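Consortium newsletter contribution from the modelling node. Members have asked for a concrete example of what our holo predictions look like. Here is one, prepared for the zinc ion complex that several groups have been discussing at recent meetings.
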Amino acid sequence: MMAHFQDVSKQSSLHPKPAELVSQYGTAGFRANAKLLDHIMFRMGLLAALRSKKTKATIGVMVTASHNPEEDNGVKLIDPMGEMLLQTWESYATQLANAEQEDLLTALKDVIEKEAINMSQEANVFVGKDTRSSSSSLSQAVLDGVAALGGHSKDYGLVTTPQLHYMVRCQNTQGKYGEATVEGYYKKLCQAFIQLINNKASNCTDDQKHLSVDGANGIGALKVHEMESHLKKELLISLFNDGSKGKLNHQCGADFVKVQQKPPTGIEINPGERGCSFDGDADRIVYYYTDSDGRFHLLDGDKIATLISTFLKELLTQASLDLKIAVVQTAYANGSSTHYLENTMKVTVVCTKTGVKHLHHAAQEFDIGVYFEANGHGTVLFSEAAEEKIQQLAENPGTDDEKKRAALLLQNTVNVINQTVGDAISDMLLIEAILAIKGMTIQQWDAMYTDLPNRQLKVKVSDRRVIDTTDAERRAVSPAGLQEAIDSLVKKYKQARSFVRPSGTEDVVRVYAEAEAQESTDALAHEVSLAVYRLAGGVGDEPKPLH
Ligand code: NG1
Ligand code: ZN
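And here is the predicted structure:
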């Protein structure tokens, strides 16, 4: 044990922390310019080894900054069931990341003591990385950290974030969830996809098999390419922004498309054809098409959640299975989607704070929990009991044909889904299968409901923590007067809604507004931005109107 600590001291001096740098474990781990991250990576290797000893299970560490620019990087820790790191450990991560060089051992011993960690327990850590130029040396720093505490590691190299989550779950369930290899991942998902596609509607023609994918010049592109042979030509993918020339996330990818509400550069699709965009680590996906008038239509996480939950609800009815299904959203979900789900689909809708970990936890409360952020990050969770009921029905020789068909479709749906975390590849396969089974075009999917016009803005303030929110971030409790101001602005417009919250990944306050028409939406977003600027300590120039 003493020997370990000597190793840590020696090794950590090779990964020194720049003095006075303060980093914060944010909405999705640490994220910063890649030059500032070497010491954090080494220390997250240490922390992952401790977490592994504590849980007596394999832990994952993914090196990526998702949709952020190529110059940035970041790190996400993965817990035993493939979920995000337990929240109480986030503060240990922050503590280790910020300890000055000479205090690192003390900080480490503090975690060991607080968590009563048995240091003679083995540690196993899976490591993965995205395609950023900084990712190789940073993932080596993680491996060094694991080794400094005598832990074992397996380096998966280039994988998507959700693939690494999947590997961790497979490993810790002794293969029950699948085989912990990239090949095993393709096999499981694609087999389920092919089974689903065998049930495609009779009106579903061969040109419907075609899909254009924007790989954001990132890891997702590489992996889609790798997977293609497993799809047996049941899905014909044209891959754009595959990383061969463009820059990661630059003018492309899911975040660009969602925020700019326009198609990525570098993609060619004919009017009416389906396209989709992944983000830089392939845990988000959004769909779109351009109509015959050249108008761009975005189908975001809300539309995806609606399609999936509708499909599942129909199957449950056909199978006469009494399972409780719910959709989990955040305040950013378009009001039309919430209205449609509650009033037309009659499913339970839950709203949580922003950040996938909150949605994931809320979704676990139901037999089937469909969760999506509007930005396209999401998946479906099935409780153990739900999976058992589905299996029993599928295997029971007494089940009639219609019920059996529904049960088998449900079973394959479970298998095509990566339940550990939002997964662009898995979500894409599920969406493609649903459209084929329902014989539905992307226009018909889009027509399920019409999005309210919406606008997202950012306001710079001197300290964004002055804004405190409640009710899943939909209402501001401080500073005084801000919520009242928002309320009276919202009253001026029809079907209007607006809220503000401090971002967890950028030093800004985010403003969201939606209303009956784009013009009133933009006016409302601007007026609320002004209220934030005036009441919450805005810095720089006053926000200007959009038009
Ligand atoms: P912040 O910066 O806290 O709004 C953003 C996204 C989240 C989530 C995280 C992590 C929006 C409005 N916010 O968080 O949904 O994806 O990044 O990447 O999209
Ligand atoms: Zn991502």
